[in-house]
Amino acid sequence: MYPTAAYLALERDEDDRDHLWLHSIRDITGHILWDAESSSPMPALADAELRQAWGQMDPCVPSNLGGLINSLAAVGALFDFLPDSAAHEDDPNDPDPDLLCLTLSNQAEPGLWWWDGDALLRPYSASRPATPHH
């Protein structure tokens, strides 16, 4: 849908920390390609194979995409932290953590390379550095 997309940014619900909201889709520099608060629709999914994989659901409908994200979280999926390099000055100042993300590109660098978990969802990412950052 967005050829330069690198991050699907997610925000925790203030009242229900287990619920995630779609925040934005960003490129590798943090430029916002789509903002969940805007009224602009997402473009149609052009890839026929991916479109077929969604079945009757349309991933261009934010509630469908958000529902899938929350279903994954409900069964224990863990999402990365959005890296500082993709942060925006108007991002929420949630104390714990700011924004989570799902990496969408092989150039995307998660906020914490060395944060692992059995259920960590990192479908794409840049090559992990050889040594941990300190």
Summarize this structure as a short list of keywords or feature phrases.
134 residues; alpha+beta; 5-stranded antiparallel β-sheet; 2 helices; globular
Structure description:
The protein is of the alpha+beta class and 134 residues long. The chain is built from 2 helices and 5 strands, in the order βββααββ. The protein has a 5-stranded antiparallel β-sheet, with helices on one face. Strand 2 and strand 3 form a beta hairpin. The longest helix has 13 residues. It is globular and about 45 Å long. The N and C termini lie far apart (35 Å). The mean pLDDT is 85.
Count of separate DSSP helical elements: 2
Span of the ends, CA to CA: 35 Å
Mean pLDDT: 85
Strand order of the largest sheet: 3-2-1-5-4
Structural class: alpha+beta
Enumerate the spans where pLDDT stays under 50 for 5 or more consecutive residues: none
Shape: globular
SSE arrangement, N to C? EEEHHEE
Radius of gyration: 15 Å
| Number of separate strands | 5
Percent helix range: 10-25%
Largest sheet: 5 strands, antiparallel
Structure summarized in a few sentences:
With 134 residues, this protein is α+β, with helices and mostly antiparallel strands. It has helices at residues 48-53, 62-74, and strands at residues 5-12, 20-27, 32-35, 80-81, 100-103. A hairpin with a 4-residue loop joins strand 2 and strand 3 (32-35).
